[in-house]
Fold this sequence. Notes:
Elements: E1 11-18, E2 28-35, E3 40-44, H1 51-58, E4 66-71, E5 74-75, H2 81-85, E6 88-92, H3 103-107, H4 109-113, H5 118-131, H6 136-139, H7 149-161, E7 167-171, H8 179-196, E8 199-204, H9 207-213, E9 216-221, E10 225-230, H10 232-237, H11 242-248, H12 252-255, E11 272-274, H13 279-288, E12 293-297, E13 303-308, E14 329-331, H14 336-345, E15 350-354, E16 360-365, H15 366-383
Parallel strand pairs: 3-8, 3-9, 6-7, 7-8, 11-12, 14-15
Antiparallel strand pairs: 1-2, 1-4, 4-5, 9-10, 12-13, 15-16
Amino acid sequence: MSENSVSGVDIELVDVTKHYPGQRTAAVDSVSMRIPAGETVVLVGPSGCGKTTTMKMINRLIEPTSGKILLDGDNIIERDADQLRRHIGYVIQGAGLFPHMSVEDNVGLVPGMLRWKKQRVSDRVDELLDLVGLEPEQFRHRYPRQLSGGQQQRVGVARALAADPPVLLMDEPFGAVDPITRARLQDELIRLQEELRKTIVFVTHDFDEAVKLGDRIAVLAQGSRIVQYDAPAEILANPADDYVSEFVGAGAALKQLTINRVRDVALDEAVTVEIGGDPADAAERARSAGRTHAVVLDARRRPLRWLSLKDLQRPDALRHVDRDEDLETVSTSSTLNDALDSMLTSSHGVVLVIGRDHAYEGAIRVDTIMKAIEELSSSTDDTEPAA
């Protein structure tokens, strides 16, 4: 991706401290770090270490006691706090949507405050809902209570992006959803970031999530002391000390599966057929390929469901096909670890891969994952010192 496509800005913290009255020690103690434009930097550490406080000082939800925070070279203390926040996206756990407002009104809130024209706001709402994988016609008039947890979180991300802010702050945004939904939301964030290149500061206590999402990880100790600030692969290979090693945990080689992406391996092909196609032809192609199922795609080449050879015997099998809400898919941005997890719950031993606009890209099989594990184990053994 070209440098011109970066829409984020540099963030620099210089000796930033937060000291609450009545407390002997600082919640954040003289933290300095640079967050490069267009990168995702993850702050990870135990509860109470100051990571959320550090992040909230960037949009002045918490005012720093001392030090400087520079956005694109400008000191945020010199800016009006409300105006600052309208140009910094903010996503929290549970989405934080206003329950009495529709999806459309939630997403269009900040553009409305910035006095955008109604048609521009409406177009932006549709654009962002589509971007986060929600059909605008289906979701714009719904209320938060009518959405699943994952759908609410997608709306929360859309709302944070509504005014096209250069900076996105995310405070454990996926912590309240189930593991499968969480993995899918992480994939969506990776896909969005590849396209938008915002500067993202992401807070989590989950090291695996940090490895998956971060261009860089800051491992924090008490007072937001930075123990190690580096790329995920470097932290996995060379933890700075025992404290970081405890965060990495056992199985560092297998954690490499959380760095390697589905797009990095050669994909297989499933037998595909579009709605309205010839079921007899699909069945013949499946038999010729030694397969027992074909996957049905809609007009936008999005996977709908698997159909068996028996299903395809019906002449009207492809006339109308409902979407299987439990269809196992991963995106090209998913990690190999996610693909393996999905594969273990799939009844087909194969997981479909989707790309931009959720269109079919191919399939990934267990043999591909096992080969990747063998290569990672081999490279790890090669780097180990001789006894």
